Structures are given as structure tokens and as C-alpha cells.
Task: structure prediction
Amino acid sequence: MAKKLKIGIISLTSCEGCQIAILSLGDKLLKLKDKVEFLEFRYLEDQPWPDHFDVAFVEGSPITKKQLKTLKEARKRADKLIVLGNCAALGGVHEIKNYRDRNKIIRYVYERKKGIANPEIREIDNFVKVDFTIPGCPINPEEFLRVLKNLVEKKPLKIPTISVCEECPLQGTPDCFIVKKRVCFGPWTLGGCGAPCPKNGLECLACRGFKKGVNLDVMIKSLSRFASEKELKEKLEIFGLRDELNS
Result:
């Protein structure tokens, strides 16, 4: 019998929606049981970590010192480290506080803030080497499955390079939000999600991040024809993309 791929699914600060997305695969995931072994995935088991992972998938942002230690330990034990979702790749909704008064924000959440970690939010690749990213909020489970199968078969890992706008009409979206003068980042956002937000009447807010090589100045200029600078910045903050304007 061929050696099973040893996998870890590791969670930092997040809603854990990406892990739920993985579980939603159900039988499709179970069909890989003879090829993949989940050695860490707290929704399935609660055992000490092994000495080695072939692949560690990490979801969420490292906010506490303990989480940062966990992240670095995962990197040390894994041949490959793959980040899952927007929080891990781009800072997620946590990063909104980077553009506000962090000390004021923490008082809305905690009655007693003493001892509560309140750092600036930084993406995982600021702390450890990242080998690959599966984007989204949450991730597309079918995309995760394709990546997992490619890992098993030792094939190159790929993410579609199309934009959300290319997928949007295929989902039966009746009208373009930009034509209706609503802020939508679809033309500039990395596709592969299947455009579920536009399909359900919601503008794309770029949870998968921008396509490589996108001219963000052109994007802002285009949307500024009907949206204020304040509105654009606030929408870019939702999924941790405001800092892309300054990179």
C-alpha cells in the first residue's frame, strides 16, 4: 500500500469557517481515506501533534504569543505549509482594527482588557515561509479538494487566474453592480470561488485577494466616479486589502 500523505489542519484566530468548508465535502473527503491521513484536525480528533507533517494547512491569524509559537512549530514540522482562507492570507476582518484606535476597539469587546493580546494584525507570510495559498472567505471546498488530490498525486498546485467578473455571468447574475454604480471589486479580484456573492445580490469585496498584476490606481480611479474615498477604503478594510494600496 502506498504511503499516506500526513496532513495537519491547524487553526489560529478565526471563525473556523474554512474547516467547516472542508468538512462539507463529506463523502468526497472520505474517498481519500486510503491516501490521506489527518494527524491534526480538531473537528475530527484531539491528539498530540506528530513529529512530522507532509503538509500543514493553517487557518486564521496569529494573534497571541501562543498562536505564533504554534505557527512556527507547524512550519518546523511540515514539508509544506499552505494557508487557508482570507484571515491567514490577508489578515481578514481582524485587520480592520489596524486602521482604527486599537485601544478603543478592545474596550468594546472586553470589560477588563488587562492581559489581552491586542497586536497589529499581520498576515502569516510575515512570520513564516508560505508554500501555497488557498484563498477565500471561506475557502471553496472543491478547490481545497483539488489541491489535496494534486498533493497526493504530486502534481503542481494551481489556483485559477481568472477574475470574479469572468465567473459572474455564468452564475446568472442579471446586472453588473458597477453599471448600477455599486462598489464591486469583481473585475480586479482573483476568481475561482464561483461568484456566490454576486449570484446572491452582494457585491464582490475581494475576499480572495486581487489578481496578480492588477493596477490598483486604475481600480480606485474607476470606482471613484461614483464612490467616495471613505467608502472605498472602508470596503477594502473588510477583508484586509486596504494595505494593498500602499504596497
About this structure: Residues 53 and 143 are 21 Å apart (CA to CA).
